[in-house]
Fold:
Amino acid sequence: SQKIEQNSEALNIQEGKTATLTCNYTNYSPAYLQWYRQDPGRGPVFLLLIRENEKEKRKERLKVTFDTTLKQSLFHITASQPADSATYLCALGTGRRALTFGSGTRLQVQP
Amino acid sequence: SQTIHQWPATLVQPVGSPLSLECTVEGTSNPNLYWYRQAAGRGLQLLFYSVGIGQISSEVPQNLSASRPQDRQFILSSKKLLLSDSGFYLCAWSVWALSGNTIYFGEGSWLTVV
Structure:
């Protein structure tokens, strides 16, 4: 069955450093991959989408890579700030089907 | 711009009681609509999705049901709640684009079954 793995342990980093979160998947050939941010008690918010034929996507301090051979996506936040503290979810999609979400990784940026 | 409204935000219900969560979307036509559930510290579980009025697909067999009486209205129901139904319920919408199926979530409804 399809499986999406995100590190369940929280990632703690110092302000100003680059945070790198990992999303691995198996038994899946997604056409695109998305990253969402979720704050406690709130619904997830869309951040970035990257298609299977794209290697890298950037948006301000965010960068996403997508390696379909390794079946992995990396999500980077450069110059991290305490306001970046949240849970980050990756989601995989194919065609018009509903997205399949990972369980998320909590990021804590220390001032 | 598009907005999504979901209510109630919080509810505490006894075991065996009925449930009705409602969601409406504004600013778009014929959206795909979704109900997800998130248990504490867990990922998002897709419960139902709908591509049009009266068209509901169920992803997980359970005592919940969904209905779409109007284009931009999606309702999650149960006749008899179980303790295991407790969780954070999220309604969401999307409109298919060639770039992908980006989903936009409501603020969620916290359900505690006691």
